[in-house]
Recover the amino acids of this structure.
């Protein structure tokens, strides 16, 4: 069959240039859109303040009761900075699963699927923009709170330098996980239970409350082999207690987790788009 | 060469069935039952470049499914379709550069941002040359008269303003074909008219091919030149709109709120006892009474009067003029027959016993 349209073939380089500009613009627009929620994001940091305060009291009581100054190499101030870091990352997670779920159920994805761009990368860029705004606000509040409670951070220059990289990989893993759960809306009537299970497992086994080193065995061993620690424990540990061996191990863990997560996401997406059953037609 | 060709298109959805009650829910959990529902059954049609087609039918008729197949979002179970010579579900990305869609009940504007930001984003998505884009944006802002609010966050726009911005966004990349799914749904009379005029204007000025679905007979009458009626996934009528108007849209319902009691305009028929309009023809010297053939009084209560007028027998204007000569009209609504009635009539004329919903 002949086509009516005449479209010049683009080189690979041109295509990459266009793609980069597309998703960078989505990223920028998403930042602007999320700045409209500034008040809400700042308000949510109250939770972070309360959390850090409660755990400061808890660690102080625990350390005093045991008569120790450090636990598995972590002093009270390290514990507070660790907690501030994990909470900064954990509380910056946007409602990605709900967004995808609603787009599938409402048929809103018809708009995005009908555009000359990738549905997955469009959402990835949008997600990164939204998460960046939350991360920056959370980090600013967490920094002030931890400074007020326990004084200057124990960060090393190396830890500070590599932290953006490990956080970027961590939130990319989160994207693969929560986007895939959102895609389950193609098959299931409710994705919230899947989200809650994964999210709570990530909080408990990901080391959000305390470094994995302080957990008893066999929970510690289990948490260390599961991918959740690559998102919260790994980046926080890198910032608070930077060790080159640990950092390299974390990078390997993050790359493997991200590769498997992305594979699952794209397989699910490919199957899902073949069985699109958009509501309203 | 047709711009859209559809041949024997079939789309079947598989839906899970659940019996009522707790036992039904448990049974459905243990042994789920599925039902196959044919949303589109072997439909075939062609559309030439520059045509404005109304693709109409009641809820669940298969209109949106057809649009989603033609835009490459849904995969059909059988049949063939080509849009601009491309197979939509196989060449969706390539086709996307040349088509556009706007859904009246869904928005593509970023909720917290002004439409201009969405336009800028779409320029990047559709890989537009930025100088060309700025010219195009200026043209559409002018045509759609949206200069005053392209810098207002989308959430603060009225439905009519938002819809004009949605259409401008859809047309930013100069598509050859635009699929409009219920573009006037929820709009007030003035906003509806505005959207209809704009679609018509762009069809004439840019040769835009329009594929429009709607429940509103007004959209079809005023915008389209050809109508395809679909029901239960089957095409039951494919006809020029002029003929459709003559055959199926001639009866209008006029709802009036009068300053005086409605009974002052009516008299009871001596034989049947039915109420009839009884007023003088407008601007007549010899006090002729208005011919009432084709006028049925549906309801007369207090100051309200509802008439059904067959415009083939009795044009609207003289009737309204005659009523106005007799008393002051406080409010008036003129409505087309509902889609369900039109479809029932098509079936009855074809001698088929099709159902509507």
């Amino acid at each position: 069959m002949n086509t009516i349209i005449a479209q010049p073939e683009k080189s690979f380089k041109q295509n990459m240039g266009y793609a980069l500009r597309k998703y960078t613009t989505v990223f920028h627009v998403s930042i602007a859109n999320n700045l409209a929620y500034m008040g809400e994001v700042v308000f949510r940091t109250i939770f972070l303040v309360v959390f850090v305060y409660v755990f400061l009291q808890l660690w102080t009581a625990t350390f005093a009761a045991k008569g120790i100054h450090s636990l598995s190499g972590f002093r009270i101030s390290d514990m507070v900075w660790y907690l501030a870091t994990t909470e900064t990352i954990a509380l910056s997670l946007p409602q990605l699963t709900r967004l995808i779920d609603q787009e599938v159920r409402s048929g809103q994805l018809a708009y995005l699927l009908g555009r000359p761009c990738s549905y997955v990368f469009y959402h990835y860029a949008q997600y990164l923009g939204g998460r960046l705004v939350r991360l920056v606000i959370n980090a600013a509040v967490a920094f002030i709170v931890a400074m007020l409670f326990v004084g200057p951070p124990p960060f090393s220059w190396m830890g500070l330098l590599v932290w953006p990289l490990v956080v970027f990989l961590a939130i990319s893993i989160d994207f693969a996980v929560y986007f895939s759960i959102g895609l389950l809306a193609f098959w299931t009537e409710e994705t919230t239970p899947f989200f809650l299970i994964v999210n709570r497992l990530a909080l408990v086994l990901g080391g959000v409350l305390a470094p994995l080193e302080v957990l008893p065995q066999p929970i510690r061993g289990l948490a260390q082999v599961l991918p959740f620690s690559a998102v919260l424990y790994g980046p926080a540990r890198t910032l608070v207690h930077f060790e080159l061996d640990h950092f390299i191990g974390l990078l390997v863990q993050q790359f493997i987790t991200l590769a498997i997560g992305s594979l699952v996401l794209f397989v699910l997406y490919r199957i899902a788009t073949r069985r699109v059953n958009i509501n309203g037609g | 060469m047709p711009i859209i060709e559809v041949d024997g298109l079939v789309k079947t959805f598989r839906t899970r069935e659940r019996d009522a009650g707790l036992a039904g829910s448990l049974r459905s959990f243990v042994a789920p039952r599925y039902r196959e529902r044919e949303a589109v059954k072997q439909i075939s049609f062609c559309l030439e470049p520059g045509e404005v087609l109304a693709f109409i039918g009641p809820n669940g008729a298969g209109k949106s499914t057809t649009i989603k197949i033609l835009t490459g979002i849904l995969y059909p179970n059988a049949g063939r379709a080509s849009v601009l010579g491309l197979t939509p579900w196989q060449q969706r990305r390539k086709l996307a550069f040349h088509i556009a869609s706007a859904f009246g009940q869904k928005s593509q504007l970023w909720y917290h941002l002004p439409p201009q930001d969405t336009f800028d984003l779409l320029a990047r998505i559709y890989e537009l040359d930025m100088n060309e884009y700025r010219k195009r944006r200026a043209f559409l802002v002018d045509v759609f008269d949206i200069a005053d609010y392209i810098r207002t966050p989308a959430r603060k726009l009225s439905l009519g303003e938002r819809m004009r911005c949605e259409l401008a966004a859809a047309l930013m990349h100069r598509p050859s074909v635009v699929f409009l799914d219920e573009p006037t749904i929820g709009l007030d009379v003035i906003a509806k008219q505005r959207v209809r005029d704009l679609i018509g204007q762009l069809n004439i000025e840019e040769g835009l091919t329009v594929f429009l679905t709607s429940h509103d007979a007004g959209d079809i009458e005023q915008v389209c030149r050809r109508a395809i009626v679909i029901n239960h996934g089957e095409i039951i009528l494919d006809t020029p709109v002029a003929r459709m108007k003559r055959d199926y849209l001639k009866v209008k319902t006029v709802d009036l709120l009068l300053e005086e009691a409605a009974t002052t305009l009516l008299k009871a028929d001596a034989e049947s006892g039915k109420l009839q309009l009884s007023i003088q023809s407008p601007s007549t010297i010899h006090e002729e009474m208005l011919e009432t053939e084709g006028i049925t009084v549906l309801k007369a209560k207090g100051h309200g009067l509802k008439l059904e007028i067959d415009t083939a027998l009795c044009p609207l204007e003289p009737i309204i003029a005659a009523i106005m000569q007799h008393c002051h009209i406080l409010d008036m609504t003129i409505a087309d027959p509902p889609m369900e009635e039109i479809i029932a009539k098509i079936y009855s004329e074809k001698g088929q016993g099709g159902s509507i919903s």
Chain B touches chain A through 48 residues (CB under 8 Å). DSSP finds eleven helices and 15 strands in chain B.
